[in-house]
Amino acid sequence: MSDILQQSARDPFWFRDCFLMRMPIGRKASNLRELLQILREASEDVLYYHIFQSRLALTDPEIEYPNDFALWAANALQDTKLAEKLSSFDPFEYGSMSAVREAVLEILEEYLWDMPYVPWARPGFELYLCQAQTAVIQSPTPSYTLAEFCQGLQRVGLDSIYYHFFEAPWRLGVSKVDDFSFWIEYNFDLPRLVKDIRQIDVYFYSLPELRATLLALINEHMGVYCERTA
Amino acid sequence: MNGLHDYTPIVGQEVIEQLQRLAERLTRRRFVHINSTRTGGGVAEILSRAVPLLNQLGLETTWEVIIGDPEFFEITKAMHNGLQGDRVRFTPRMMEHYREINRENAKRFDWEADFVLVHDPQPAALIEHLRPRAPKWVWRCHIDASRPQRHVWKFLREYVIRYDASVFSMSSFAQNLPHPQYLIHPSIDPLSDKNRDLTAGEVQAVMDRLGIRKDRPIILQVSRFDSFKDPMGVIQAFKMVRRHTSCQLLLVGGEATDDPEGPEIFARVKEAAAGDPDITILLLPPDSHYEVNALQRAADVIVQKSVREGFGLTVTEAMWKGKPVIGGAVGGIVLQIRDYHTGFLVHSPEGCAFRIRYLLHRPEMARRMGKLAREFVRRHFLITRHIRDYLTLMLFIDNPGSRFIEL
Fold first, then answer.
1. Do residue A135 and residue B392 have CB atoms under 8 angstroms apart?
2. Residues A42 and A127 in one domain
3. ipTM metric
């Protein structure tokens, strides 16, 4: 099986690093109704930032609350029930950001409908809404083989893991497909590996964990430590 | 002066290559920074390191400083305090003098540029006279402007809206403005005299020279003597700690030429510490970076108990030296310190005292936090990341409306 590690791909894989220029929009939500209003009016980039791009925020994402809205509900509104609802919603199930927006609005509206009062954030815990512009830098050297790919995977920054896992479904236009499994599927006859990679629920992994899980899966399928064989 | 490649062992080759790739797109572009002091304070410190590095990357970068009389700096200090939320007197006469000094400075300048980055309120009004000198103007606000006094912000906003973009240190500082707003966190230079590694002998020599004996644990706050840095609160916290544990407090401050309030606060602090053999107050010249470095390395616990803070560079400096930092839970400090992980965030002198006691009695925990703190700074708060943000900012401002740039 390890021969396939040295097999050359038809198209090489180019790792890309990305970093964000964060752009506050100058609006804040002090309570749940304000958040609802802002999310109705703001651009989809704002939702995209708080649901996906916040993965690249300075602090490690809280696994329990995988997007900024859930985290804010838990920490600022101290409303665990709402935080659970916002956590369990899966943005990758929707085909567009406008559908994601509708889904978030629906959760918030339904929640507010039954509330006898509007939940307020603790003072100092208001949610400041942002969006971001993204700069992407392609690595200077491509990976032609799986062995080179594994070495690259170990070397690249966490931003790159984010880019290839989280941004890919939107770029490729295919739900739950990442750049890594897409490349492997197209270049090598490894359908089980491809399937296993696509079954990683990225929403519950930090970026270092995602990198380790992906390497472990490739090693498991190859039967050797692929990153040491290039 | 350090070259770009001297940073490779610290940040990695990939980071340096990223900077070069970004800069390739901006070669020979003229980039002018303008602020109000060449020495003292975080802005001047960042610029003194960033400007040469930007030049090494191929951008023609210069740093201009506006000149003002003492009255101008009194006025801009009032503006600064007002933007940070203090009730201040800001009269039409003060506004006129502010405009007048900006007008005079505008006459002195003869540069032309592609990008201008104007730092803080002092030179913000230059745009009124110099707008045609550069196609892109960006206003950089280093202040915690989360709750500004309305009359001060209303006055300043009239100038800020003429810029093409503005940059803040935290999203909570951003304002309602008609142009794009960006977030850039300030940074430190790991190779500057303030932050480079020192030997134990070098540290000891500075301690000897300054007459500080390390015969009991040292608690240190380094900051300007400014009411927002709460030096009185630090003394209060220290006195609470000393009831339980023998230790000493070092309050170390520099002077900035654009801060007329400093001497007054310094006198108050001196009075509060008078006759206390465990409190040492040092007023160091603004270029005492090497001494501050040594003191931070000699300290057991470092405090930055600010009650308002744009971004506490001293917090990052201390973290880079592997020290646990106790910071006021305000402004940028909440982003710099991850509570219970790389340090502690506190809300009162009592909270500060409690955490100091904890760290003095749990040295192994202090070491662990310090180690995590250093790594956190390496990843997020070094000058290379700051330069990357400047370059990316210019690329995006050059391509308004684009969400995405691929290099």
1. yes
2. yes
3. 0.89
